Amino acid sequence: MTALWESARLRGVIRRWSELRYRTSGGIYANHIARTGDYGAPLREALRALPAHPHRILDVSTGTGYAAQVAMSMFPEARSYACDLSTSMLSAARENLSRTALIYCDSAHLPFRNGAFDLVLLQNAPPPLRELARVTAPGGWVILGFSAAGPLPAWLPEKVVRRLATYGLHSARWIRTGRGLYILGRLDVLEDAA
Q: pTM of the prediction?
């Protein structure tokens, strides 16, 4: 299943579905988040587990900007970027994120250089794992938050952790919390051979 998320063949289908699905639902989605008290519990717990404050944060598939908003409330000194494939969701995010640069893009082809971010977040969206790892700096962190893990197949978190390891996040682990779960991994730091 994780390979499907990264499949170039399916990206066109995913892109079109996303544009149609979220064209007018930014406000509805934001209201749902507001009514769901434990929506971000896994994300908040994962952010509290970080041993250091990040300086550059990227929220991938930001939707209404929830993950970036939570991260910026915890790390207000950081520079924050958020991206999404839905212009409707980015419009909703603009209302929630005053200090975050918003970018329209496909998460499978992030327009950032390799290793650009100390922290890469993805909340409740299919994770393009290779791209998330690519834009994470050595020693930086990737957090995948799932607010309601019940609908996820039981084998999926472990498969995602194994896939992250193939991209250099050998420390990745998943932790169930409340109704959800998060996956937290640190990109390996390459030792200098000198």
A: 0.83
